[in-house]
Amino acid sequence: MDWSSRIDSKEIRVSVFVLGYVGLPTALGFADKGFRVIGVDTIDSVVNGLNQGVSHIEEIQVEERLKNALERKLFFATTDGV
């Protein structure tokens, strides 16, 4: 299967490193489109909060989108970027 087909079928997994004001909305944008996303950050409290549906940044609709992605099992945050 070629990359285009894998993208179209949402078969690929997306990784986003550093879940701040750019990284988190980017990760959620991919999740909004149906991609499975692994978000990586070095701060335990940020990762734990995100996995519980609590955002550390204040941006319009981020927590709503985060909770939706978690419910659909399309987003998971971790400190392990390996």
Q: Could you tell me the radius of gyration in angstroms? A: 12 Å
Quaternary arrangement of the chains shown?
single chain
| Sheet with the most strands, sense and barrel status | 3 strands, parallel
| SSE sequence, one letter per element | HEHEHHE
Number of strands: 3
- Cα shape: globular
Compute the number of helices.
Answer: 4
- Residue stretches low in confidence (pLDDT < 50, at least 5 long) are none
What is the mean predicted local confidence, pLDDT?
94
Distance between the termini: 25 Å
Strands of the widest sheet, in order across it, are 1-2-3
The amount of beta strand, in percent, is 15-25%
Helix content: 40-55%
Structural class: alpha/beta
Highlighted features:
alpha/beta, three-stranded parallel sheet, 82 residues
Question: How does this model look, in words?
Answer:
By secondary structure, the protein is α/β, with parallel strands linked by helices. It is 41% helix and 17% strand. It has four helices and three strands. A three-stranded parallel beta sheet has the order 1-2-3. Helix 2 links the parallel strand 1 and strand 2. Helix 2 packs across helix 4. The chain is globular, with a radius of gyration of 12 Å. The chain starts with a helix and ends with a strand. The mean pLDDT is 94.
